[in-house]
Records
---
Amino acid sequence: MTIKDYLKDTISNCWALGHFNFSENDALRAIVESAAELKTPIFVGVSENERKHIGIKETIALVRAFREEFGIPIFLNADHHKNFEAVKEVVDAGYDAILADFSKLPFEENIKMTKQSVEYAKSKNPDIITEGELGYVRGESKIQTEVIEIKPEDLTKPEEAAQFVKETGVDLLAPAVGNIHGIVTNNSGTIDIQRIGDIKKAIGENIYLVLHGGSGLNELEFKNAIEAGVSMVHINTEIRVAFTESLRKTLQEMPEETTPYKVMAPSILAMKKVIAEKLKIFRSVNRL
Ligand code: G3H
Ligand code: ZN
């Protein structure tokens, strides 16, 4: 099945694809092992900085190797690529999907740059999946203790979403619907489910919604968001936290240990636990 087939299926059967970020081999292994155990297709993503840390060729080679080893569909996404040069680089390298994120720009400029990215990507690879972002998703993928206030003007308007997808030609849309990047310890806001439904209705059945900032959301929020039309959920911070918390604990418990794969082993298990929990909540089990 192609990515589009899976996306279509998320709507017909009310589930969501999991998209998990990685910045080194062990996180990628944790994502793939969890997906293989639960028999589900999976998106793996790297932001510009995550990609730079691993290396562009290395991300491609690693994903290819994991596909061969585990025999499940693994799709590589260039997550939040924020300038045209960076988009070109990943398209030329052979990524399966891109998020051309020009959401910081004014509406018309965002449309122009996203459209340019989509046209370039599709001219190089007609099967590539393209995503644009509209609205302001605040925060970054870390634990955030400061108060993050979402302003009404941050949120994506359904009529603008319809115009955006029509003019840019994206396959996927990342809206701002009360979601925040990171685990926010000081925020009482919640996901605007009504808005997700309205945006989905406005963009139509062949364009799919991606919920960013999945870390810290609860099961009911995911359930309602998926029922309202979300086809993919991004998780990053919770994996980072599982990794580093476990590593700190291990280093404390085994101060004499110097073998990297021994100190890393508990971190892989901790990440797998988080990933498996999310895949079950997204109803993304047995979807191959
Ligand atoms: O693109 C990445 C995601 O939106 C991650 O968000 O760090 O809140 O899980 P998160
Ligand atoms: Zn994101």
---
Amino acid sequence: MKLILLGAPGAGKGTVAKLLTQMDGSVQISTGDILRGAVAAGTELGKKAEAAMKRGDLVSDDLIMGIMEKRLQEPDCAKGFLLDGFPRTIPQAEALKLLLAKLGIKLDMVVSIEVPRDVILDRLSTRRTCSNGKCQAIYNVKSNPPKKEGICDKCGSPVVQREDETEAAISHRLETYNQKTAPLIGFYEKEGMFVRVNATSSDAVIAAIKNKLGK
Ligand code: AMP
């Protein structure tokens, strides 16, 4: 399947994407994961993105489109992809539309996962992430802690609070979402194939998506 997952930080896009990849071999493409991997590896891309990410601002549309133009042409995308955290601005959505037309790719659906702000704030402030740029497994100190405190179950690296998940950075990211990303809902409503899902459980989101796709 070829989906865009829209939603504020903490809405559950990554969790839903991971569950969907198990259904049909579609790949999750998270621009946030790609950028954090680049920052951890100290690449040119990482150096360009790091300051904006720390502040909770968006990195430039050009940088993101450079990443996505290459990523969508990699062979593992042929089976399908779940775009998680991209597009994030109207110019990105417009550039994606042109890119997909150029590559002859048709999206199945755009899903907006909508979760109340208090749930998002609670989730983000209790979320912890594996510091290994190649792993980036997600934990939650309340609902899904690692077996050994502070250590990733999957790769043994330290599990940390992301620098952009302090209270100040979270509220800035939510503001950025409202200003720059929420307008994509109107954009995709006009494009058609848009679905809004109000659900705090990832299983309920998956069920709604399957239902819409007729799977
Ligand atoms: P995320 O993990 O999706 O919340 O992304 C973490 C950070 O990476 C964001 O706060 C932005 O600084 C940056 N980022 C990720 N995806 C994008 C995007 N599509 N456009 C601009 N910045 C992005």
---
Amino acid sequence: MIKILFVCLGNICRSPMAQGIMESKIHKKGLGGKVLTDSAGTANYHVDEAPDPRTLTALRRNGIELVHKGQQFKEAHLQEFDYILAMDRNNLEDIQKKVGKSSKVFLMRDFDRVEKGADVPDPYYGGVDGFEKIYTILNRSIEHFMQDKIVDVSSR
Ligand code: 4NP
């Protein structure tokens, strides 16, 4: 089993969207039971809350239903997960403050072959178009991540 945790600030916009996209790709690629994904926020503002309605709408427009309750990133996640993917540099720094530097922790867009190493912009204070934009970024980055890291998981 490979376990992947997506991390943003609030765990209501970017990281749950990434989780929904990843769950959909796991299902489509027949990797259920082999790859597992979850999401968390570095802050505790939205613990136990549902994802932002704009994230759920962007997912639904692409045929994806997500059920998730906000949780805060914690030290134990480092042991539990194989990959921890931060949405932006601030998230990466906050993760490192909590668990130190680890070879399991990456920026999500380290895997984006179009704009490698960029941040996934925080859409919280913007309009709905920002959520459509991050859907495109995340869909592409996660596809590239899976091509790089989840290649021969079917033989495990
Ligand atoms: P996220 O977006 O980190 O992508 O979930 C945000 C959600 C909430 C807040 C900031 C960013 N907030 O300040 O409450």
---
Amino acid sequence: MKAVVYKGPFTVAVEDVDKPAIQHPNDVIVKVTSTAICGSDLHMYEGRTAAEPGIVFGHENMGVIEDVGSGVTSLKQGDRVVMPFNVACGFCRNCSEGFTGYCTTVNPGFAGGAYGYVAMGPWQGGQAEYLRVPYADFNCLKLPEGTEHETDFILLADIFPTGYHGCELAQVRPGESVAVYGAGPVGLMAAYSALLRGAKKVFVVDRVPERLQKAREIGAVPVDFSAGDPIEQIKDQTDGVGTDKGVDAVGYQATGRSGGEEEPATVLNSLVGTVRPTGALGVPGLYVPADPGGPDEHAKQGKLLVAIGKLFEKGLRVGTGQCNVKRYNRQLRDMIIEGRAKPGFVVSHELPLTQASSAYDKFDKRIEGYTKVILHP
Ligand code: ZN
Ligand code: ZN
């Protein structure tokens, strides 16, 4: 079968690899219909991780079940399903308590597994014609038959729940104001989720005009940080107080106002400044325990100069970590089915899998409006 194979920094190729087969009675094989490229795939693509050439990318996957292991009870051939990017067992302590992003079964020595991702276990990615899904009863979310809402449902694999998770971590409640830093796909999903949760006013901070325009279109207030200090801009619009809550949808690859050089702590420190005393921050944006390409010695070891004193002084709460997709994907699916949520507005391109190489290149360079790319095998 065809699959997107990592060849080395800044190179992927669509190549023939072995088609996956049932290896355990709890597996299913999914014929992939949609698979998305994620900003976190670029961390591997750019050679910033320990990913070895040969890995098949793809943790955001949906499709139709083609083959069913003998131990699978709730699924059958022909079912349309979307899989959380988290691979999870369903029975370890963390899974039992709802923390499926921290499953201790699927990735021994670590907590948390994913398809097609370095250090997240042996699970082949789904940017391919077929995907093997382990613990399939637990990891497949059933979707209505047919092809309706395909570009909405594919976002249930990661970015819609992850954006929602940012709001959950920040405990966004109806009537609150929220500042979301980053108007990439996850930031837009976080802003959209804050509005779905009844926030009264949502600010979205970025510097890219098209991204800020998308934020405006969904009813958020765009804040262009290249035009002036975002903390001041937001305080000016919140009676000088700041927002009730904040979400970091940027992570460690943040850049300062001048652009150029990475300043990995700048978003966290901006949030400490933006959110009012006793507020809360949600941090779904990715930070890593080691970043060999980081801008200074501390950053290389995953350590940042965060204004912890100010954080303490303001009594801010902070929630971090990757999304436990299964906590939200069923409810968010139902909001899509009922027409209450249409996250697909964030998708910029839909392309055949065979164009993956140029799609990665253009997405990495952020050219031609590439923001969220869906590949169809
Ligand atoms: Zn992703
Ligand atoms: Zn588990």
